[in-house]
Amino acid sequence: MSEEQQQQWSEWLDFDRAHVDSVPEAAGVYLMHASMKVMRIGGSDNVRKSLYELLADPCASKAKRFHYMLTQSHASVAEQLLQDYKEKHQGKLPACMEK
Question: Considering only CA atoms, which of 1, 57, 86, 4 is closest in space to residue 66?
Fold first, then answer.
């Protein structure tokens, strides 16, 4: 993980409307988990909007916590996070990203 990523991740927040309200409307990446399992990794031009949409998603709404990092290079950072995850989990995607 790059120095930029290590310095800029938010604290872990409960995945609910009140905490999503605190997320800036800015480009970035996010990671969501429940019961010590990563549920979803993503990136967006508007992290808050994406998290609001995920509150209504049947799988992602099971997440208990999330954290985020603001970055204009969200697409490449999210892709690297996914690659790192897949390397550690025998090529599998997070639970809410499997098709």
Answer: 57
Superfamily designation of domain 3-90? GIY-YIG endonuclease (3.40.1440.10)
What pTM did the predictor assign? 0.89
pLDDT per residue as tens, the chain (99 positions): 444 444 589 999 999 999 999 999 999 999 999 998 999 999 999 999 999 999 999 999 999 999 999 999 999 999 999 999 999 999 999 999 987
Q: How far is Cα 19 from Cα 5, in angstroms, rounded to an integer?
A: 21
d(CA 90, CA 92): 6
The residue count of the chain comes to: 99
